[in-house]
């Protein structure tokens, strides 16, 4: 089924009475499948594990449409399911490996990049940015990944369980720290 408007942010209202679980899932993936793949990349660096995680998200999303009642937008529902699967993935990873996540204060104290690589304000080294995001504590990482998916503070709060004000504060602080790390020591106050 082709999309009617590829630039629209949300499909027409999805009512489970009109759509089967399979149809609801297919419509959600049609509208948000690329976003899910990008979102999952923020949870897992390893390509094979990332593909497995994406499959887990798709299974959970399909299963979730059995209980979807339209009390939130499909987009929020999709991200909420992806967030829950991603959080579970991180918890499992923590049990398997003894990784060291950094607090916001520790990220702030990391040395900046002063290699003199030519760049403009519009050109950001995404690999380095995601490397820094991957080092954030899980909740901070999730908030930032949802922000990068263009969700507002209220939407992120709905997904993570944080207040919109707390989300806005976290996003502001993380953006400031990431910008300082990306721009090097000369940009730090």
Would you mind describing this structure in some detail?
The protein has 189 residues and is mainly alpha-helical. It has two domains: 13-98, Rna Polymerase Sigma Factor, Chain: A (Orthogonal Bundle), CATH 1.10.1740.10; 100-189, no CATH class. Helices cover 61% and strands 0% of the residues. The chain is built from eight helices and no strands. The protein has helices spanning 21-41, 47-64, 74-96, 104-108, 126-135, 138-148, 153-160, 164-183. Helix 6 packs across helix 8 (164-183) and helix 7 crosses helix 8. The longest helix is centred in the middle third of the chain and has 23 residues, at 74-96. It is globular, with a radius of gyration of 18 Å. Residues 1-9 and 114-124 have low confidence and may be disordered.
Summarize this, please?
The protein contains eight helices and no strands. It has 189 residues and is mainly α. The chain folds into two domains: 13-98, RNA polymerase sigma factor, region 2, helix turn helix motif (Rna Polymerase Sigma Factor, Chain: A, Orthogonal Bundle), CATH 1.10.1740; 100-189, no CATH class.
Mean model confidence by pLDDT: 77
Helix-strand makeup class? mainly alpha
Number of helices: 8
Q: Tally of extended strands? A: 0
What proportion of the residues is helical, as a percent range? Answer: 55-70%
**SSE order in H/E notation?**
HHHHHHHH
């Amino acid at each position: 089924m082709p999309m009617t408007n590829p630039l629209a942010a949300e499909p027409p209202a999805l009512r489970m009475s009109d759509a089967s679980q399979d149809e609801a899932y297919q419509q959600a993936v049609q509208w948000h499948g690329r976003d899910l793949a990008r979102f999952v990349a923020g949870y897992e660096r390893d390509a094979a594990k990332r593909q497995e995680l994406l499959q887990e998200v798709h299974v959970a999303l399909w299963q979730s449409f059995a209980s979807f009642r339209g009390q939130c937008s499909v987009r929020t529902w999709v991200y909420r399911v992806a967030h829950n699967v991603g959080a579970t993935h991180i918890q499992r990873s923590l049990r398997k490996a003894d990784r060291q996540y950094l607090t916001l204060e520790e990220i702030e104290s990391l040395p900046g990049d002063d290699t003199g690589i030519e760049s403009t304000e519009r050109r950001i080294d995404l690999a380095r940015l995601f490397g820094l995001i991957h080092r954030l504590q899980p909740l901070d990482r999730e908030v930032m990944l949802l922000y990068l998916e263009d969700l507002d503070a209220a939407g992120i709060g709905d997904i993570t369980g944080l207040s919109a004000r707390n989300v806005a504060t976290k996003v502001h602080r993380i953006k400031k720290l990431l910008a300082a790390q990306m721009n090097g020591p000369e940009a730090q106050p």
